[in-house]
Amino acid sequence: MRIFDPHIHMTSRTTDDYERMAAAGVRALVEPAFWLGQPRTSVASFTDYFDSLVGWEPFRAGQFGIRHHATIALNPKEANDPRCAGVLDVLPRYLEKDGVVAVGEIGYDSMTPEEDHAFAAQLALAIEHELPALVHTPHRDKARGTERTIKVVAESGIDPGRVVVDHLNEVTVAAVKDSGSWAGFSIYPDTKMSPPRMVEILKQFGTERVLVNSAADWGKSDPLLTRETADLMLASGFSEDDVDLVFWRNPVAFYGQSGKLDLGDNEPGALFEGNSILRGGS
Amino acid sequence: MKPDELRAALDRAAVDWVDEAVRQVSADPGAIARLFPRAARACGRAPIAGGWSADEAARALLLAALPADRVAAEADRLYRYGDASEKRAVLRALPLLPVGEAGVPLLHDAIRTNDTRLVGAALGTYAAHLDAATWRQAVLKCVFMGLPLSIVDRLDERADEELRVMLAGLAEERAAAGRPMAADATGLLNRLAGTALRKEA
């Protein structure tokens, strides 16, 4: 089984997790930029974080044969802090990086005017840099937040097929699928979505335009929940081809719209860029 | 390799892209901020010649096209905002650029990382500008990280008694722990020990 985790915050995981993920079949992942638990107070904290998403994390992942890509953005929560507003000005440099395959996570946290501004500005950046967009939906007031998200996406002019609206549940999935955007689901041990609930949604709404991720952030989370959900799909009557569609071909199709997805030879165990050192000989 | 040799080693499509990009940078040096990260997508990442890859060569040619009075500042900024491949390209291009010693802080940054791609690229010919203490630490770091010492420019010429003492200490620790030391590091240690013996004799 090959797994592409389309949304996982590896910054908050140990190197042992990379090893366990590789053993479970994870061969590629996308790490979205988000907040880090502790609020940041300056633009420089963000640029150091972005640097790690296009530098250190891909290197760490590569040691286990996992291809690492990132999405870059000013997240909605910190968009409310005026000290962080300057992050919007440094984004164009990062959106041009080879490993950056979408603008994200953008969207709403508390649905403030500051969030409106950052969301619209970053959808415009996605269009300008020809990138898809990864949109977070709020924890609080989720249903109305999702409706508003769909409206803002429509107003921006971006092709809804280049947008994934994430952290959906039974209540919010239908509107997103009807809007033409991709439906994202974050599987957590207790909260947003569980493997059994996910399998029921896949039965009801099908396996097309669906991205299933483990998110695996600083909270109580598990980077192997993609594999657990895939196993449960098989046990529930889905075919291996269905699982491959949801956990590999769908994320490849979605992020492939960036034109920058590089899955290499995708052989677990291969040394990422290690060859470029060995062949370098300089 | 010199810039014209790097250009000659690129394939036709890459040369066309680089020539156009160099024209843009010559007309407007600020254009390099957008062109530099795009070079790998445009030219590929295949090995070409002399240990260079196509993207590194293309990026070096863009840097070489900058006006002499701007190249140090732009190289610094491109490194600062570069992903690991861009940083590596800046490091490899340093010996080709009229920057004097201005690139030394970039080497220090690269050597502080634990990314083998960057540490390795910091020990090319431009490392001649590194002071002896920093250079010895970097060589020892290569041994720790499992990098082949063949990437270190002028290794035997610069290796000195102090580096011999450091390597001997590592060899002793490794022996005590029952862990091996890389053959090339042991080889260097033996060569340095031989030199020391000859000096005593």
Cα gyration radius of chain B (Å): 19 Å
Treating each run of at least 4 consecutive H or I residues as one helix, how many helices of chain B? 12
Main sheet of chain A? 8 strands, parallel
Number of strands of chain A: 8
Structure class of chain A: alpha/beta
Give the number of domains of chain B: 2
Cα end-to-end separation of chain A: 39 Å
| Gyration radius of chain A, in Å | 18 Å
Structure description:
The complex is a heterodimer of chains A (282) and B (201). In chain A, 45% of the residues lie in helices and 14% in strands. Chain A has 282 residues and is of the alpha/beta class. Chain A has a single domain, classed as TIM Barrel (Alpha-Beta Barrel), CATH 3.20.20. Chain A has an eight-stranded parallel beta sheet with strand order 1-2-3-4-5-6-7-8, with helices on both faces. In chain A, strand 5 (133-136), helix 7 (142-156) and strand 6 form a beta-alpha-beta unit. Chain B is mainly alpha-helical. Chain B has two domains: 1-99, no CATH class; 103-201. Chain B is built from twelve helices and no strands. The mean pLDDT of chain B is 95. The A-B interface holds A 47, 51, 54-56, 58-59, 90, 92-94, 96-99, 259-260, 273-274, 276-282 and B 33-34, 37-38, 40-41, 45, 47, 50-53, 81, 83-88, 92, 113-117, 120-121, 124-125, 147-148, 150-151, 153.
Could you write a compact summary of the structure shown?
Chain A is of the alpha/beta class. Chain A has helices at 15-24, 43-54, 56-62, 76-79, 87-95, 113-128, 142-156, 173-179, 195-205, 225-235, 240-256, 274-280; strands at 3-5, 26-32, 67-72, 100-107, 133-136, 163-165, 182-186, 210-213.
Summarize the topology.
The complex is a heterodimer of chains A (282) and B (201).
Chain A: E1 3-5, H1 15-24, E2 26-32, H2 43-54, H3 56-62, E3 67-72, H4 76-79, H5 87-95, E4 100-107, H6 113-128, E5 133-136, H7 142-156, E6 163-165, H8 173-179, E7 182-186, H9 195-205, E8 210-213, H10 225-235, H11 240-256, H12 274-280
Parallel strand pairs in A: 1-2, 2-3, 3-4, 4-5, 5-6, 6-7, 7-8
Helix pairs in contact in A: 5-6, 9-10, 10-11
Chain B: H1 3-9, H2 12-27, H3 32-43, H4 54-64, H5 71-80, H6 84-93, H7 104-112, H8 116-121, H9 132-145, H10 155-158, H11 161-177, H12 183-200
Helix pairs in contact in B: 1-4, 2-3, 2-4, 3-4, 4-6, 5-6, 11-12
Protein name (chain B): Sugar phosphate isomerase
Organism (chain A): Asanoa ishikariensis
Keywords (chain A): Hydrolase, Metal-binding
